Amino acid sequence: MKKVWIFVLALVLVSLPVLSLAEDVTIGVTGAFYEDLWQPAIDALAKEGINVKLQQFSDFSLPNNALNSGEIQMNAFQHHAYFNNDTSNNGYNLAVIADTFVITMNLYSAKYETIEALQADVKSGKALNIVIPNDATNQGRALLVLQDAGIIALSGDYETTPNIENVQAVEGSQVTLTPVNAAQTYQFLEDADAAIINGNYAASYGVDPTSAIFYENVNLDDQRFICLIAVKAEDIDNPTYKRIAEVFCSDVTGEVANTTFKGFFDLVWEK
What we know:
Blueprint: H1 2-15, E1 23-29, H2 33-46, E2 50-56, H3 63-69, E3 74-75, H4 80-90, E4 94-99, E5 101-103, E6 105-108, H5 115-124, E7 127-133, H6 136-148, E8 152-154, E9 167-169, E10 174-180, E11 194-198, H7 199-204, E12 228-232, H8 239-248, H9 251-259, E13 265-267
Parallel strand pairs: 1-2, 1-3, 7-10, 7-11
Antiparallel strand pairs: 3-12, 4-12, 5-13, 6-11, 8-9
Helix pairs in contact: 2-8, 2-9
C-alpha cells in the first residue's frame, strides 16, 4: 500500500505546473541610455532567476516588427500614439503590459540661449530652420511643442496629432521645418537654428536636460505620449513578463531616472 501511495504522489508531482519564473527574456529598446535605465531592474530580476537581455534597435520602425515575429519577447521604446499607429498600419498583434513614463521632447539650440531670443527672430521675419522628427506621431508631438513655444501656429482641423499640412506660419515669420529621422535630430543641432529632440536620443547623446530652451508641457492625463512595455497579445498574462514590468516600474528604476536622467522622465507609477 505504501508503494502505491508513493507512486500516486510521484504522478501528482510530475503533473504539477512549474511555478518558477526562471526564463531568458530579450527586450527591444532604442537608445544607449536604456542600458543604464534598465540595469537596476535587470540586476533585481536576476536574483529571481529571470535573465533579461536588452537588444538595441537603430530605428523606431524595427522593435515592433521584431516583437511580432518572435525575435524578441518584449519591447520598451514607444509611447501609445506610436504604438497605436504602428500596430494598426502593420497589423501587429501586440498588447500593452505596462505604462512607464513620459520621455520629454524639448527644443534645443546651439545658436540661441533663450526661447525669447528665438521668438524675437521669428517675429522679425528672419529665415530660420528648425529640425523635427519625420515619423507621424513624433512629428505631430513636435509641432505641438513648437506651437506652445510660439514658433508656429497650427490649424485646428486635426483630430489627435497635427501634421505638416496643419502648420501655419506666425505672421511675418519665415520658419522652415526640416523633418529628419528622430534618431538623427541631435546630429543637425549645430547646423540648424533649433531642433526638437526626443528625450531618449538626447539622453543617449549625453545632452544636459537643463540646456533646452523650451520644455514640453507634459500632461500625464493625455495617454498618447505615455511610454509603455509591449508584448505579443498572446503573452499578456505571462507571469514572467508581468514580473519584469512590475520590477521595472518601481523604485529601482525611479532612483536612476530621477538622478542620472533627471529632467528627461516623468514617471507614471510615481503619480
